[in-house]
Task: structure prediction
Amino acid sequence: MCGIVGLCLQRRAVHVGDLESMNSTILHRGPDGTGVHIDGSTGIGMRRLSIIDLHGGWQPIANENGRIHVLQNGEIYNFRELRKELEARGHVFRTESDTEAIVHAYEEWGGRNFANHLRGMFAIAIHDAERGELWLVRDRLGIKPLYLAETPAGFGFASEIKALLASPILEAKVNPRAVSQYLAFGSSGHGTSFLQDVQSLPPGHVACHKQGRTEITAYWEFRMQPQESGWKYEDARDELRHRLHSAVKSHLVSDVPVGAFLSGGIDSSIVVGLMAKELGASFKTFSIGFHVDEFNELPHAKQIADKWGTDHHVEMVTPNAVDIVETLVRHFDEPFADPSAIPTWYVSQLAARHVKVVLSGDGGDELFAGYDRYTEASRDQWIDGIPQFLRTAIARCARFMPDAAPGRYFLDYLQYDRGGRYAYQLDLFPRPLRQRLLRNSWHPDELEMIDPTHERAALLRNSGAPDLIGQCSYLDTKHYLPLDILTKVDRMTMAHSIESRPPLLDHELVEFASRLPTRWKVNAQGVQKHILKDSARDLMPTNIVKRKKAGFAVPFQKWFATDLATMFSDTVMDNAMCHEYFDPQVIRELFAQNRTGRRDHGMKLWSFLVFEIWLRSLRDLSRPTTTPFVVH
Result:
């Protein structure tokens, strides 16, 4: 595990100082050491968090003739099997590192194909001096981040955007498209970022930079295509249990102790139970609790910890959003509106006192249809019985209603098809409210062209699933997981220099889950994640199996009634930088409605606060528009 950076400059050679400046911004991702390799105008570097081959796995790692160098952020869980195969093909290894398997896999199978042989989570950079190529690869599900920057001054990549801002090629300029995406997703969208000239490499994609040009292609894809015949439920359930155990076992590969996040929910309980099957009680688990009962899951987590006798660590926290918001913004590098980053910060802080690696239960809800919104979307299919012309007319009439009017957004929601309605209900700000907020800085035709709802709806159409629940599950796996959940966990764990591994997102398990019929995931009685629960009943008490999903929530209503309201008023209401993008009158209306209790706008107000603090931090990072170059 580490953080990686690199540059291909147009007008001069890369200097060690260029890479050191970039590396210094991501010290938290790898406090155990650093490494660089420079070849003229191309340079790559990393910060290391030592997990595997503690003494020999220093990067960059070269091939036998020293002409190909590799960096990796992440872990390759099948590296030992790969090593045996590659040695049989004549490759010579010098370390016990999982990263060295990558460079020889690249030699054997080429830049567009080698990642298909990897089982793991990774962001990889390979400099091939013989071919004059720089290859960049991101894991299939988007567990590890990788950002690319391309400007007239050159090309760069990094695990975090702050490293690119420390490079000599990038200026801090806001990307307007991402602002519109933020109001819908609470983050930037796929393949974009909040900075002009910076994009995220999409999950399951590979980029090749050569002679000043970058080509990006997909190397992996999956569809939700249930296999409706040819197997029995009992056989599929047993096979799922086997695959769950295999995924967890593979994720335990480490030369340092491994612990687990334990919320007391289904997914983390399954992971901990399977870890116990492998490790006994010789591992640590971590849970945090809140003094507000409805947000406190500690009793459920304790049940699982007691069942397996883990070394369980608990901390009651009183999160103070006023104190932590600026720290969170600094670690995300972009506006990120999901407030569950706050409890994730605290549980990561707790775990970092004891271990370097933790397993999590991320991915279970997306793959096995665990969200209530899936069944809610299915219940709304009665809307399709209303003629489209009538639904469209109703939506047009709704435009003349005040935003706070009861049912205003539901009437707008009626105009969409099934997939569009699901995408609509995911939006942080409903489409009519987005249009009001952006009215001063956007033309109506521009807003229509980049409506973020279309991005989600396109994924639904491409899902391959024959039913709405499968389509929604696919959308969340491809969109919500990498843009929100996985981004949050990566930044908050790496902020504390620990590695989080999600075994439920092992790509072989994902491919298997995509073939399971929806009726096995949500049964006839409406039980969600049915086959997952059935495959792991021995790992949990019955009350945990039957528990309703709780989520990692925060008490916003209470916060915005106290200190957070004061901070919001002082930061966002008057003379704020965000008023350049958002209509201040609309912000004031939402704030007033929230204070009087007419509407709960806590999430929306939080998103404004985060955006404003980010804009102020970006101003401090801004640099002159011309960057001096030394010409050799």
Summary: Residues 556-621 form one domain. Residues 16 and 84 are 36 Å apart (CA to CA). The longest strand covers residues 68-76. Residues 468-495 form the longest helix (28 residues).
